[in-house]
Amino acid sequence: MSGPPLALIVGATSDIARAVALRWAAMGWSLILAGRDMALLERDAEDLRLRHGVSVATRRIDALDTASFPAFVAGLPGLPDVVVCLVGALEDQRCAEADGAVAERLMRGNFIGPALLLGEIAHRMAARGSGVVIGVSSVAGDRGRAANYVYGSAKAGFSAFLSGLRARMSRCGLRVVTIKPGFVRTRMTEGMALPRFLTAEADEVARVIADAPTRGRDVVYAPGIWRLVMFVIRALPETLFKRLRL
Amino acid sequence: MILSGWGRYPSLDCPVFQARHEDDVRRLVDGRVSVIARGAGRAYGDAALNADGVLSALPMNRFLAFDPVAGALTCEAGVALDDILDTFVPRGWFPMVVPGLRAATVGGALAADVHGKNHHRDGCFGDHTLWLDLLTADGGVTRCGPDRESRLFRATRGGMGLTGVILRAAIRLRRIETAVIRQETLRLADLDSGLDALEASDDWTYNVAWIDCRASGKGFGRSVLTRGEHARVEELPRALRADPLRRSPPRLGTVPCDLPPILALNAVAARLFNEAYFRASRPGEALIGLDRFFFPLDGLSAWNRLYGRAGLLQHQCVLPRASARAGLRALLNRIAATDCRPLLAVLKRMGPRRGGFLSFPIDGHSLALDFPVSPASFALCDDLDAIVADCGGRLYLAKDARMSAATMRKGYPELEQFAEARAAWDADGRFRSRQSERLGL
Ligand SMILES: Cc1cc2nc3c(=O)[nH]c(=O)nc-3n(C[C@H](O)[C@H](O)[C@H](O)COP(=O)(O)OP(=O)(O)OC[C@H]3O[C@@H](n4cnc5c(N)ncnc54)[C@H](O)[C@@H]3O)c2cc1C
Ligand SMILES: NC(=O)c1ccc[n+]([C@@H]2O[C@H](COP(=O)([O-])OP(=O)(O)OC[C@H]3O[C@@H](n4cnc5c(N)ncnc54)[C@H](OP(=O)(O)O)[C@@H]3O)[C@@H](O)[C@H]2O)c1
């Protein structure tokens, strides 16, 4: 590889994404920031250029507009060495229960869009024979909870997709990493009452993501304590689980 | 969320809102009875507390532009000085004015119009600000500076967030050749010789003195004066010349928890510390990293926990030149008559006043003291306030958690002009803090 690695960050306006971008830029990587709000992306890009003197491009993408993905990928400044997707949409579960359109938007935004996009990019990376694909899913996908199962089921679908993609691509020289954050203090969770000792800062999760390309792990809980927490939660028998107010 | 300033007294339950962009700020300001902006929360007292709403500017931390010809950096208000140093010291730039800590944000530095060890030469942070964008009570954004909307600018720099939310600013940086300070240390045996030496040091860019508040009798007011200049490349030893802008900030670790009362810093610890400090300060010249020179306390994270759960009070005053000598003597005498001992007593020279309506420095000497929170230290601080008022001095709002409205009024004759300017932009007093309410602002 000549020159610094090129990383594509999808959902780059997310709080966690910005912290990832700062870390990769500090390592001298070239970046492509993709998201819906071009004005914001351009401001973040300029900040990264000023801080670290790296080259940063910006691209528009809406994860709900799956038809645009091939053109989006073809229009990138280059096929990235690393891609991370942080697109995630959280809406009030009760709205999703009452309104199928809301539920569908959650499923498309958290599963269909991210999965199809990473699938498209992985396919091209496979032709090249190298690359790292990182999908940011959630612990919410490990078991459907009454309070949050629409979002959770979409993340579960995304996790399963990444798992299969990883198995398929391991023969083509690609790595596929699934990141499962627990509670993180970000725009997504602002105003929610989160358990203090189980809630991470955006940068803690960003560090895990930023290290993922160089570390050999496939499924990473962030922070690591969540592997244990979810092990216990998955082990609860359904008869008990359905009575718990989780 | 229970919030407090760096001194951890007082604390208050405040709803905190994260402002990522101008639109967030506007939405939050619109929807609330009253609100106050907050940066890194390093003001000691209650300046960035408000039970109706606190707007954290920390997520607004982007660099927006840099003009290397003018050395002008444009950035959002939540950018920390630390970020500026990390990015610009390696390129040979340094802020014109820095306070004694790296965590302070640009918004906080402007709102308190902070001073460094170079006030006698370079003035305050606001003196090197080309403009700032302020979101005011009506939701509009006004650009103000020394040459446009200057009344709003004078009310905002030093105005402790009471005119609106600073969104972004353009500040000037100075050229440096190295990340090293050429430092000279002098030990002065008593108060008068210390003040003489400090006054004779106006040619140095940076000056600061530490006073031992314990020493009585002959060594009363003994001090250690350090003066500094940015070192030139040719002043460095050959080995360092290859990479002169490299920093090596000391990292001593973090204080993990509140010290229990028995261990928390008390008069005995203060005495031991002061004795050790005096002995350790070797007179003479030295080259030291700029982090050690400017931010000596930053090596130890969360050191405010050393004072235990009750927290600490800072008392920083400035006395006009004419009454400074007698006034400082009276202050030190008053302290010596009690059991309260400040751990650190820092003396600085302040140059002519030219800042905002509420900017702290006036031509004279400033003394900063810190005490563990206790009934005795409150009583002592009240006595110190009276001495300061008699001398025609004033207290620093960024350090204050306890002064009375009357003390404030006496110390700040331009309060009237401040109030007029503020009323013109924020008739209902939307921007308010626990401090502004305590002081009747
Ligand atoms: C160890 C230590 C050393 C210090 N040394 C010095 C020194 O040498 N010289 C000196 O002058 N000061 C010094 N200080 C004080 C410190 O520089 C000031 O309190 C500064 O304001 C802290 O910045 P902050 O970002 O933490 O602001 P905060 O503490 O969060 O806020 C301080 C004030 O600024 C206002 N404010 C913050 N952000 C904004 C914004 N975006 N828009 C409008 N208003 C805003 C707040 O409302 C509040 O009134 C020191 C403090 C510490 C803890
Ligand atoms: N915060 C948590 O507790 C938590 C826990 C587990 C997992 N996660 C996951 O972590 C990832 C990052 O989230 P975050 O916490 O940093 O939250 P965030 O700041 O709200 O980020 C969500 C991001 O997704 C983008 N997005 C949403 N819908 C989109 C669409 N249709 N097209 C394109 N972009 C879209 C948003 O873009 P806009 O700026 O344009 O809205 C935003 O950049 C998400 O996948 C989230 O599910 C978060």
Write the layout of secondary structure elements.
The complex is a heterodimer of chains A (246) and B (441).
Chain A: E1 6-10, H1 15-26, E2 30-35, H2 38-52, E3 56-60, H3 69-74, E4 82-85, H4 93-98, H5 100-128, E5 131-136, H6 149-169, E6 174-181, E7 183-185, E8 199-201, H7 202-211, E9 219-222, H8 225-235, H9 238-241
Parallel strand pairs in A: 1-2, 1-4, 2-3, 4-5, 5-6, 6-9, 7-8
Helix pairs in contact in A: 1-2, 1-7, 5-6
Chain B: E1 2-4, E2 11-13, E3 16-18, H1 22-30, E4 36-38, E5 54-56, E6 63-67, E7 72-76, H2 81-88, E8 93-95, H3 106-111, H4 119-122, E9 129-135, E10 141-144, H5 150-156, E11 165-175, E12 180-188, H6 191-199, E13 206-211, E14 223-230, E15 253-254, H7 267-280, E16 284-289, H8 290-294, E17 300-301, E18 312-320, H9 321-336, E19 345-350, E20 364-372, H10 375-390, E21 394-395, H11 405-411, H12 415-425, H13 434-438
Parallel strand pairs in B: 3-5, 4-5, 15-17
Antiparallel strand pairs in B: 1-2, 6-7, 7-11, 8-11, 9-10, 9-11, 12-14, 12-16, 13-14, 13-19, 18-20, 18-21, 19-20
Helix pairs in contact in B: 5-12, 9-10
Could you give a quick summary of the protein structure above?
Chain A: Keywords: Oxidoreductase. Chain A: GO terms for molecular function: oxidoreductase activity. The complex is a heterodimer of chains A (246) and B (441). Chain A has 246 residues and is α/β, with parallel strands linked by helices.
Please explain how this structure is put together:
The complex is a heterodimer of chains A (246) and B (441). Chain A has helices spanning 15-26, 38-52, 69-74, 93-98, 100-128, 149-169, 202-211, 225-235, 238-241, and strands spanning 6-10, 30-35, 56-60, 82-85, 131-136, 174-181, 183-185, 199-201, 219-222. With 246 residues, chain A is of the alpha/beta class. In chain A, the strands form two sheets. Chain A has a seven-stranded parallel beta sheet, with helices on both faces. In chain A, strands 7-8 form a two-stranded parallel sheet. With 441 residues, chain B is an alpha+beta fold. The two termini of chain B are 25 Å apart. Chain B has 13 helices and 21 strands. Chain B has helices at residues 22-30, 81-88, 106-111, 119-122, 150-156, 191-199, 267-280, 290-294, 321-336, 375-390, 405-411, 415-425, 434-438; strands at 2-4, 11-13, 16-18, 36-38, 54-56, 63-67, 72-76, 93-95, 129-135, 141-144, 165-175, 180-188, 206-211, 223-230, 253-254, 284-289, 300-301, 312-320, 345-350, 364-372, 394-395. The A-B interface holds A 15, 40, 43-44, 46-47, 50-51, 187, 190 and B 17-18, 20-21, 59, 62-66, 83, 86-87. The structure holds flavin-adenine dinucleotide (FAD) and NADP nicotinamide-adenine-dinucleotide phosphate. Flavin-adenine dinucleotide binds next to strand 4, helix 3 and strand 11 of chain B. Chain A: This is SDR family oxidoreductase.
